[in-house]
Design brief:
CATH topology: Aminopeptidase
CATH superfamily: Gcn5-related N-acetyltransferase (GNAT)
Number of strands: 6
Strand order of the largest sheet: 1-2-3-4-6-5
Strand content: 35-45%
Largest sheet: 6 strands, mixed
Radius of gyration: 14 Å
Shape: globular
CATH architecture: 3-Layer(aba) Sandwich
Helix content: 10-25%
Number of domains: 1
CATH class: Alpha Beta
């Protein structure tokens, strides 16, 4: 797993974690955005977009041909962000006890 951190003069503004997909139903050349966090004070300032661009570039450089990201179905802010960055729902869904069985949906995009 790889982690990138955005900071401003030593103050962390956000981070993104990515690596090989953990899903059993995808090919080995599929990478995954595993976590993305941006401090609310830094929202809408390009921090998340910069982190996402850097992570997708890194996945390409690592040889991945696609990327996925899981999101809660009802998280409209995050889902709009992923869609803005080229991700589309691929039909996969899951519910996990660790997340109180909230519905999660998978987004995917080709890396070209």
């Amino acid at each position: 797993m790889h982690v990138l951190v955005a900071d401003d003069r030593g103050e962390a503004l956000g981070h993104i974690a990515f690596g090989t997909s953990r899903d059993d139903d995808v090919a080995p050349e599929v990478g995954e955005i595993r976590a993305l966090f941006v401090r609310p004070a830094a929202w809408r300032q390009g921090v998340g977009s910069a982190l996402m661009s850097a992570a997708l570039d890194s996945l390409r450089e690592l040889g991945y041909t696609e990327a996925t990201v899981w999101s809660f179905a009802d998280n409209s802010r995050a889902n709009a962000f992923y869609e803005h960055h080229g991700f589309r729902r691929d039909g996969a869904e899951k519910r996990e006890a660790v997340w109180a069985l909230l519905l999660e949906v998978r987004y995917r995009q080709e890396l070209s």
